[in-house]
Structures are given as C-alpha cells and as structure tokens.
C-alpha cells in the first residue's frame, strides 16, 4: 500500500464529504424558499415530512460513511507508526483536521498519550523520544476511557515492560524523574480490570524481565508495592518458583535483584513457605529460605549491596554505578543492559 497516496486520498475524500453535506443543506434551503404561498397546509406538511424522511436517511448514510472513513484513517495512522514512518509525517497525520469528525471533542484526534502507546507497541523509538520531549507530561497522561478507565495507572511504562522496549523504558523514566507531578509514576498500579492492579515492577517480575526489574528498582520502584490481591513483586516471583521448574535461572535472577533492593523483607507468602519448608529449601536454598522466613539475618553480601545501593540517586541509575569505588564484578551485577541507542529526552 502507498501510504502517502492513501493519506492524500483520505484528506481529499474528507473534503468531498464536506461538499456533499453542504450541497444537501443548500438544497433544503432552496426548497424552503421556493415553496409557493398558495400551497395547501396538508400538501406543505406532506412535503416537509417527506423531506425530513429523506434527510434522516441521508444523515444515516453520511454517518456510516464518516464512520468508515474514521476507521480507515485510524488504520492508516496505526500502520504508519508500525512501519516506522518519519516523525513529521506521523505528527501531521495525528493532528490532521480530518480526524475532527467525532462529536466527542476529547476523542476527535489522537492525543500524545495514545500516540505514545502506539510507539511503544511498535518500538518506534524516534517517535517516542519526540513525544516525550515535546509533550512530556501529556504523553504520560491517561490515554482516555476508550483505552483504559483507571485514572491512576501507568500504562505506557507497563506496556514498555510488557513488550521489552528497554530504550523506551529509559526514556519514560527520565521524564518521570524530571517532572515533580510524576514522582510516584513508576509505583502506580495498573488497571484493575485488565492488569489486576499490578505496578510495572509486578509486570516485569511476572514476565521474568530481569533487566527491566533491575532498572525499575534502581530508578526508585518500590519492591514493597502491593497489587489489589496484596501480592508484592517478591510474591510474584516466589509463586512462579513454586509452580514450575521451567526458567529457573531468570526467576532466581529476578529474586536476587529484588532482595538487593529490600533491606526489610516484606511479602505475603511467608506462611506458605513455612507450611512446606522442606520443599521451599530445595527451591530457594537453605540460606535464602532462612533469611526470607526470618530465621537468620541477611548474608554479608546482601548487607553490603544494601549499603551501596542506598547511596545511588534513582534519577542517575544505572550511570552512577560506574562512579562507585567497588569491584567490577559488583558493577556487572547491577548493570541492567546496554542501550541499543543513545536516545535521551531533551
């Protein structure tokens, strides 16, 4: 499909639709002006009724035509983001006047927030950077009731975690640290209807995104946060370890990351561990098990890491790690990933 020609055709079709509407309005006015004075009341009422009937039918047809046109335009914009078209073209399409056909003024065109969700899903890093640089706060607003109805959630960050968009995660966290109104952003619960009130850290643990887990923790995400079931991210990992022996290494890596950022262990499944201690000792190892259930203090390594990590400002993680006077092997444990690009929010 030639996207440029489709885009131009869509705008031209919009103009034609406007002309058709104008023509019908003009015709109605001419009928009213040209009605002969001697026409009987019954005949006049009949003609008006017929005109109203025809107008109603034409109105329905026009609404159907407009609806099809909007769906086509929405698909063209979606496809353009998916195909990583240039930012200038995407912004022209996002704000084009043809989108202004819906009666609800808040849903007439794509908001920066909705556009950012598309950019996250399709990993359009340049467009995500543009939206976050030019519409920082608006880009991270709730995208509207047609996408999510929970006003306190952080869908963009959760979506970036879900799709493993690491560079976009970093961009979003930059904005969250820079704006005072977004200080609690990364700890907001997700939609209760779609994500059970999980925070982005819950999602990262659930999907075993160990690098995202480390980046979120280092950036200030709380390992103590609970979803609407009272489950912490640590509970999510323990639940997965108890259910299956598949992907044990990434599960234990997520567990290690969580424990390094938890000077005080808090989780819901403590009674579950105690009820079947022999099985859990095999899964976790005796030292980790005893620490989690409170039978022994934290290992010296964990105590050292707690002290080190408390010195790091979340807004500068993980760059601040390189300045620490600690052995290289410790730094490698705390380096979440190498960024694929050098994108930053301006």
Automatic annotation (TrEMBL):
<keyword id="KW-0040">ANK repeat</keyword>
<dbReference type="InterPro" id="IPR036770">
    <property type="entry name" value="Ankyrin_rpt-contain_sf"/>
</dbReference>
<dbReference type="InterPro" id="IPR052391">
    <property type="entry name" value="E3_Ligase-Neurotoxin"/>
</dbReference>
<dbReference type="Pfam" id="PF00023">
    <property type="entry name" value="Ank"/>
</dbReference>
<protein>
    <submittedName>
        <fullName>ANKR9 protein</fullName>
    </submittedName>
</protein>
<dbReference type="InterPro" id="IPR002110">
    <property type="entry name" value="Ankyrin_rpt"/>
</dbReference>
<feature type="repeat" description="ANK">
    <location>
        <begin position="196"/>
        <end position="228"/>
    </location>
</feature>
